[in-house]
Amino acid sequence: MQDTPSNWLITPATMAKIDADAIRSGIPGSALMERAGQAVAATALRHFPETLRFCVLCGPGNNGGDGYVAARALAGAGADVALFHLGDPDRLYGDAAEARRSCPLASAPLEAYRPYAGDLVIDAIFGAGLARDVPDVVAQCIEEVAAIGIPVLAVDLPSGIDGLTGRVRGAAFVAKRSVSFVGLKPGHVLLPGRDSCGPVEVYDIGIPRRIVEANRGLVSLNSPRHLRPHLRKASAADHKYRRGHLTVFSGPVLATGAARLSAEAGLRAGAGVVALASGGAALAINAAHTTAVMLTRIDTAGDLAAWLEDDRRSTFVLGPGFGDRALARSYARAILGSGRKLVLDADGLTAFAETPELRASLQGPTDGALVITPHEGEFARLFPALFGSGSGKLDMASAAAAQIGGVVVFKGADTVIAAPDGRVAVETSAPPSLATAGSGDVLAGIIGAHLANGVPAFEAACAGVHRHSQAALKALMPMTAEDLVRNIPPLDALD
């Protein structure tokens, strides 16, 4: 799978290791800090030309060191610069201490800063490494800056945003723009942190790519690159079953629409055959609303067993509008026990919320065969211990995937896709219009189509989530789930 720096998502702990390895390789830490601070100064001058006073707020670590370099560079360019520090600057050490010594400007305690119209705040207090609530003096400064509406340029991340989870640690600056280095951090893309960063410019500060690649881990931004290596070229010898068979289970007579949305999405997304498995009571209404989607009657576990006798029926979506929790558990176990692939969504997830442990309850090998798609409420019911642990969304999704031995799509405006082997991807392009009834049903069908096409589970989920977002971006507002199905982009049009 091809990767590029634009897809990198680097945790704070990983970034610290990358910095350390770069320094061990012979690159002076002071040189890295100099490039970072100069990038901050250049960004401030380029994007905030109306500024009357550049107010640089420096913290007690390397983020503060970047700020001292930026202050020196801005003063050298003739700007009016005011410099403020948190804590005792005489206790700085290493590269940050050297950066302060090299800065000719006197600094005042952070408590002395009074924001005025015409200021630009350059926030170099904490950056991505923050994992505790900000002290009161910083919270007070944040409040005063926000009250006057002073623009903020954040160095790495706005102070107060947890770089790993995106959570607000007591209080946080809301930046007009952020400057980061080497790659984005999780706090830039996870909510609510994402809403506090503004546009983020990522600068190369001279760390060799080999060092980043050796350390950066298994977390990345989601993109079509997850799917491309697994696409099968069309052939004149193709037939519908070669493109994959997807079965979607319908709910009862008054709840059939969700399953039809999934089925139609699966067909539109590229499955060769899609069958809607309906109980007898709902056959008539489903027959009246389906054309290219096939219809079959499945009322019992015995009917499903007969359906599974055909090996071509490889992939299933269970849950949208399904209703019957006991039957959902029975069907899920039968499908996975037969070695088939399953997307478990909505009522299918709720059916297992009453069980002590999802993987044990499924009673079958799930590695590579199971994708679950919970939103936050469903995740909390399925994994109460994880949800209540205080971990961030990345860690919760990863732990859940390892627990069930399948892929977890932890939905939201910052959807996280996690595999049991530790791979994680974060989708950042989802528009607010996806907050509409039936949207999740469509997503389940798209993922099911990719699984039916033979795409591995993690890549199928990543591609499904991205394609789902792109469909919403194409659809006109206001958007319904039916509009979403109609706008699923062809595979060769993904960007």
TrEMBL record:
<keyword id="KW-0521">NADP</keyword>
<protein>
    <recommendedName>
        <fullName>Bifunctional NAD(P)H-hydrate repair enzyme</fullName>
        <ecNumber>4.2.1.136</ecNumber>
        <ecNumber>5.1.99.6</ecNumber>
    </recommendedName>
</protein>
<feature type="binding site">
    <location>
        <position position="375"/>
    </location>
    <ligand>
        <name>(6S)-NADPHX</name>
    </ligand>
</feature>
<keyword id="KW-0413">Isomerase</keyword>
<comment type="function">
    <text>Bifunctional enzyme that catalyzes the epimerization of the S- and R-forms of NAD(P)HX and the dehydration of the S-form of NAD(P)HX at the expense of ADP, which is converted to AMP. This allows the repair of both epimers of NAD(P)HX, a damaged form of NAD(P)H that is a result of enzymatic or heat-dependent hydration.</text>
</comment>
<feature type="domain" description="YjeF N-terminal">
    <location>
        <begin position="15"/>
        <end position="213"/>
    </location>
</feature>
<comment type="subunit">
    <text>Homotetramer.</text>
</comment>
<keyword id="KW-0456">Lyase</keyword>
<dbReference type="Pfam" id="PF01256">
    <property type="entry name" value="Carb_kinase"/>
</dbReference>
<feature type="binding site">
    <location>
        <begin position="127"/>
        <end position="133"/>
    </location>
    <ligand>
        <name>(6S)-NADPHX</name>
    </ligand>
</feature>
<feature type="binding site">
    <location>
        <position position="258"/>
    </location>
    <ligand>
        <name>(6S)-NADPHX</name>
    </ligand>
</feature>
<keyword id="KW-0511">Multifunctional enzyme</keyword>
<feature type="binding site">
    <location>
        <position position="441"/>
    </location>
    <ligand>
        <name>(6S)-NADPHX</name>
    </ligand>
</feature>
<feature type="binding site">
    <location>
        <position position="123"/>
    </location>
    <ligand>
        <name>K(+)</name>
    </ligand>
</feature>
<dbReference type="InterPro" id="IPR004443">
    <property type="entry name" value="YjeF_N_dom"/>
</dbReference>
<dbReference type="GO" id="GO:0110051">
    <property type="term" value="P:metabolite repair"/>
</dbReference>
<dbReference type="GO" id="GO:0046496">
    <property type="term" value="P:nicotinamide nucleotide metabolic process"/>
</dbReference>
<dbReference type="GO" id="GO:0052855">
    <property type="term" value="F:ADP-dependent NAD(P)H-hydrate dehydratase activity"/>
</dbReference>
<dbReference type="InterPro" id="IPR017953">
    <property type="entry name" value="Carbohydrate_kinase_pred_CS"/>
</dbReference>
<dbReference type="Pfam" id="PF03853">
    <property type="entry name" value="YjeF_N"/>
</dbReference>
<feature type="binding site">
    <location>
        <position position="321"/>
    </location>
    <ligand>
        <name>(6S)-NADPHX</name>
    </ligand>
</feature>
<keyword id="KW-0479">Metal-binding</keyword>
<dbReference type="InterPro" id="IPR036652">
    <property type="entry name" value="YjeF_N_dom_sf"/>
</dbReference>
<feature type="binding site">
    <location>
        <begin position="411"/>
        <end position="415"/>
    </location>
    <ligand>
        <name>AMP</name>
    </ligand>
</feature>
<comment type="similarity">
    <text>Belongs to the NnrE/AIBP family.</text>
</comment>
<feature type="binding site">
    <location>
        <position position="156"/>
    </location>
    <ligand>
        <name>(6S)-NADPHX</name>
    </ligand>
</feature>
<dbReference type="GO" id="GO:0005524">
    <property type="term" value="F:ATP binding"/>
</dbReference>
<dbReference type="GO" id="GO:0052856">
    <property type="term" value="F:NAD(P)HX epimerase activity"/>
</dbReference>
<keyword id="KW-0520">NAD</keyword>
<dbReference type="InterPro" id="IPR030677">
    <property type="entry name" value="Nnr"/>
</dbReference>
<feature type="binding site">
    <location>
        <position position="440"/>
    </location>
    <ligand>
        <name>AMP</name>
    </ligand>
</feature>
<comment type="function">
    <text>Catalyzes the dehydration of the S-form of NAD(P)HX at the expense of ADP, which is converted to AMP. Together with NAD(P)HX epimerase, which catalyzes the epimerization of the S- and R-forms, the enzyme allows the repair of both epimers of NAD(P)HX, a damaged form of NAD(P)H that is a result of enzymatic or heat-dependent hydration.</text>
</comment>
<feature type="domain" description="YjeF C-terminal">
    <location>
        <begin position="223"/>
        <end position="495"/>
    </location>
</feature>
<comment type="similarity">
    <text>In the N-terminal section; belongs to the NnrE/AIBP family.</text>
</comment>
<feature type="binding site">
    <location>
        <position position="63"/>
    </location>
    <ligand>
        <name>K(+)</name>
    </ligand>
</feature>
<keyword id="KW-0067">ATP-binding</keyword>
<dbReference type="GO" id="GO:0046872">
    <property type="term" value="F:metal ion binding"/>
</dbReference>
<dbReference type="InterPro" id="IPR029056">
    <property type="entry name" value="Ribokinase-like"/>
</dbReference>
<dbReference type="InterPro" id="IPR000631">
    <property type="entry name" value="CARKD"/>
</dbReference>
<feature type="binding site">
    <location>
        <begin position="62"/>
        <end position="66"/>
    </location>
    <ligand>
        <name>(6S)-NADPHX</name>
    </ligand>
</feature>
<feature type="binding site">
    <location>
        <position position="159"/>
    </location>
    <ligand>
        <name>K(+)</name>
    </ligand>
</feature>
<keyword id="KW-0630">Potassium</keyword>
